[in-house]
Amino acid sequence: xxxxxxxxxxxxxxxxxxxxxxxxxxxxxxxxxxxxxxxxxxxxxxxxxxxxxxxxxxxxxxxxxxxxxxxxxxxxxxxxxxxxxxxxxxxxxxxxxxxxxxxxxxxxxxxxxxxxxxxxxxxxxxxxxxxxxxxxxxxxxxxxxxxxxxxxxxxxxxxxxxxxxxxxxxxxxxxxxxxxxxxxxxxxxxxxxxxxxxxxxxxxxxxxxxxxxxxxxxxxxxxxxxxxxxxxxxxxxxxxxxxxxxxxxxxxxxxxxxxxxxxxxxxxxxxxxxxxxxxxxxxxxxxxxxxxxxxxxxxxxxxxxxxxxxxxxxxxxxxxxxxxxxxxxxxxxxxxxxxxxxxxxxxxxxxxxxxxxxxxxxxxxxxxxxxxxxxxxxxxxxxxxxxxxxxxxxxxxxxxxxxxxxxxxxxxxxxxxxxxxxxxxxxxxxxxxxxxxxxxxxxxxxxxxxxxxxxxxxxxxxxxxxxxxxxxxxxxxxxxxxxxxxxxxxxxxxxxxxxxxxxxxxxxxxxxxxxxxxxxxxxxxxxxxxxxxxxxxxxxxxxxxxxxxxxxxxxxxxxxxxxxxxxxxxxxxxxxxxxxxxxxxxxxxxxxxxxxxxxxxxxxxxxxxxxxxxxxxxxxxxxxxxxxxxxxxxxxxxxxxxxxxxxxxxxxxxxxxxxxxxxxxxxxxxxxxxxxxxxxxxxxxxxxxxxxxxxxxxxxxxxxxxxxxxxxxxxxxxxxxxxxxxxxxxxxxxx
Length: 735
Hints:
globular
């Protein structure tokens, strides 16, 4: 088929109004050609094929270092070879702790031996395939045998410990029991250890994920009473990846830290349990009744402790070096082979891993197969596309981080953007990432149809905000042309690309209607996923359409579809949040200190209880945010000037495209954030005490939040410098 005939036929399948719209980075002719290409791309996607791959790849538990994990690697690599990709299996030697001893018993005032196991269910045949199954545990907990009284710490966040302080309750020398939620799981033992606890137990409360949320598996999607969320508690806000090789790829020749010197292994032992095992422990705790906001869904009265509940924990691990295998599949670009669009999803699971990560992986595979079909018909990408299936993501983003650290210099020169997916479900599109890609991904959202409603996934997202959003969010969605995409914290494989190297990144997934319950449990199976999360894999196809279009547009755009007005607008939002944070903290501190000085105070969570005075807090000084505001003005003006160029469809020189895709690097500094140099991005980072949760302009924000006031001015100037650097880059693009 000639190129002319190829253009004409698919254009009949595209609505006329859509066909006439310019895509960011394309002129009228290339926009039409790109839309036609994407229509053919869609025709190559098969839900039944995704379903079959999901069934095969989630059949056996397949964690890093396992035989089943290697079988997944070989299956994926072979498919890429069949489709015509140049395939490499990149191997790294990484530290992997697996459980050797797990013991937990209540020894006073009664006795209970925790089962620490999950039930096989007749309704789910996969739950009987337990060969190679990892039992419930937290990876990178330290070994240890401890005994002590229990203290209930709610979600175990800094705010929760402030409440305990008001009650005069300390966890020093005690064992903290925390519920999942409120922060990333690794923060719970990290903070408990800092407060003097000797161990941590984490459980899923049924109010959050169990019968309080809906019917439990197999009658519904929510957590079975025996279900346990496994997961890493590595201190990823310090650095992710192999704990022994920070900053360098974990090759066989790499110099490694001694395990006792690795700062990202916990200081105290930590163990996850089910709410069935948690019930007798929590029921045995005495002391004060918890504040109303702390009450969970178990049929007991929740108490704070300490004691009289006393438990003994004994944990020991196999600290093995195992191979982590990344599948790297490359299709060379026809015009710019040294410019790489990287598209990744991990392949390792805690167990069967149907939702996390295989549901995302099969969408990636479908994209890759469709792209290969286009290339076979002479319509390959202009820039190189690299598909990656990462290993050992679950233990701490290890496979992706080691590859990024290993090839950091080459990636800095060649990586245009990174597009990540992970688990998927049905419902609403959720996109986070670099705001320089916000306009491009909004155009993608407006071009992909939601399979349930028939409107675009962007329109459906807007409708949800209209129904469930705050007044401010609803007002904005009607007045702002583009939906905001979320800034990225951590929790998946985009972190090393974005926050270590400054490579513009996106993280894409659907959710909101598939329920919960299976996450990191034995019940993350094909049966659970296809019954509750995405029956028929229709949203798997939709994910392929969204992520595939993003990759194709980045690969083919004559002018890379980076745009800076959205970046300036979002940074303006974050600067405003900093000013508001400082002012609110100042007013709150003055008010609290005045009450303490006058002897009038109470615990807002339980006003019926009389307490001793809280600690008087240091006054919050006034900060000079003018450098940030001045830098933001520079960026806004430069972005407006560039927008006129970017939106008229004019072509770009190779120089301009290099300046565009390396622009995100301007927001980084080699010396990183205070106390954690691995994180070099000064606009987006995971919070030191939130883990997955993002902190924007993190150096400034966390200095204020942690009352490290002596750092604030310096961090304001550093953030202003990176914003001014981006403004200078954008001005250069406008010349």
